[in-house]
Specification:
five-stranded mixed beta sheet; alpha+beta; 2 domains; about 170 residues; 4 helices; two-stranded antiparallel ribbon
């Protein structure tokens, strides 16, 4: 079965300067993420290909859904990740960053998979200011407050804090 992420580029290779637009929706199972963070929702790919003298420039974006847990409060998250694509495909790649053109076709699958997996945050947050759990009693600080005292600073820095106070007293 042919995948929509394999694009025939024979006409682009014959005429430098020519362009081609590709916009497809691909099942996540066809992308073979092999990553539990990726959902089963379709992956959207939109690229603009331009034939150059040294290969084919592929620019555009891809969007997919991922799932995980907030690293502070463990709330389940499902978010979209959109990645800008800008890659070079060459018949005989002269750069380790270039992808190969094989049999007058470009396989967008490895580029899409790699870019999406690299864009997923390793430690996602539900909100930037998520308070998480109280380190003493374990209360969920998003929905409640607790009476635990919060350490003001790290005791290991006490000597430097005292020195800072003495220096600021001399200046003032």
């Amino acid at each position: 079965m042919a995948t929509p992420l394999i694009v025939n580029v024979i006409e682009l290779l014959r005429r430098p300067g020519s362009t081609k637009e590709v916009q497809v929706s691909v099942a996540a199972s066809d992308v073979s993420f092999d990553d539990a963070r990726m959902t089963d929702d379709d992956v959207q790919v939109r690229v603009h290909m331009e034939s150059l003298t040294n290969g084919i420039s592929v620019r555009g974006e891809t969007t997919a859904q991922w799932q995980g847990e907030c690293r502070r409060c463990l709330v389940p998250l499902t978010r979209a990740v959109t990645v800008e694509l800008d890659e070079l495909y060459q018949s005989a790649p002269d750069s380790p960053d270039a992808y190969a053109i094989e049999n007058d076709q470009i396989n967008l699958l490895p580029m899409v998979r790699e870019n999406l997996l690299l864009a997923i945050p390793l430690g996602p947050l539900c909100t930037e200011d998520c308070p998480g759990f109280c380190p003493q009693c374990g209360a969920d600080l998003r929905s409640t407050t607790c009476g635990c005292s919060r350490p003001v600073g790290d005791d290991r820095w006490a000597v430097l804090d005292a020195l800072k106070d003495r220096l600021s007293d001399r200046e003032g």
